[in-house]
Amino acid sequence: MDVQPPPLRTLDDFVLSSARFSFPDIRNLERWNNRIINNLLYYQTNYFLSFLGFLVLIGYFQPLQMFLGATVVTLLFLGFVWAAENQCVVRRFRRNHPSLSLVAILGGSYLLLSVIGGVAVFLFGIAFPMLAILLHASMRLRSLKNKLENKLESIGLKRTPMGLLLEALGLEQEAGS
User: What is the Cα Rg of the chain in Å?
Assistant: First the structure.
């Protein structure tokens, strides 16, 4: 079956007057987890747009820092992946060229420290929206419409991007309950 993005929920349903919020019962982790998963499924389009809005807003106020941070984080990630895949080459290079290895490590450390502000802005640009999404998903009480939509998702009548992500993370059996 095709993956279908769910509809954008109204602002009234998402955060305004018809939205009901309550602190989760932290003693019942299973129920809290269900609330989060089901809200992630139901409001996924709203969460995606909120995430993009935060990212654009932070990128607007700090464009160079955001670009620099994204570039450094991407390069570090790719460097770690490459080093993990080519351990023998890296080990041989360190053994055959210890002085050059030391210069590369010191130069990389200097570069990372000089752009740490950009990395912090980029990571904040990702972490803050995720925190806001997690807080909303934790505190938003589910409505009857929310429960019905999640049941359709859990029995496989509808496939959504968040449903596929939760399935990949091994949380699909908890959704919809």
Answer: 22
8 Å CB contact between 141 and 22: yes
Burial 27-53 (b: 16+ CB within 10 A, else e): eeeeebbbbbbbbbbbbbbbbbebbee
What mean pLDDT is predicted for residues 118-122?
85
Packing angle between helix 63-85 and helix 98-114, nearest 10 degrees? 150
Which of the four pLDDT bands, split at 50, 70 and 90, describes residue 156?
A: low
Q: Which residues contact 105 (CB under 8 A, 6 or more apart)?
A: none
pTM of the model: 0.70
35-49 pLDDT, tens per residue? 888 888 888 899 999
Q: Is pLDDT above 80 for 142? A: no
**Cβ-defined contacts of 71-77 (< 8 Å, 24+):** 72/111, 72/112, 72/115, 72/118, 72/119, 72/122, 73/119, 73/122, 73/123, 76/112
Q: Among 41, 39, 30, which Cα is nearest to 4's?
A: 41
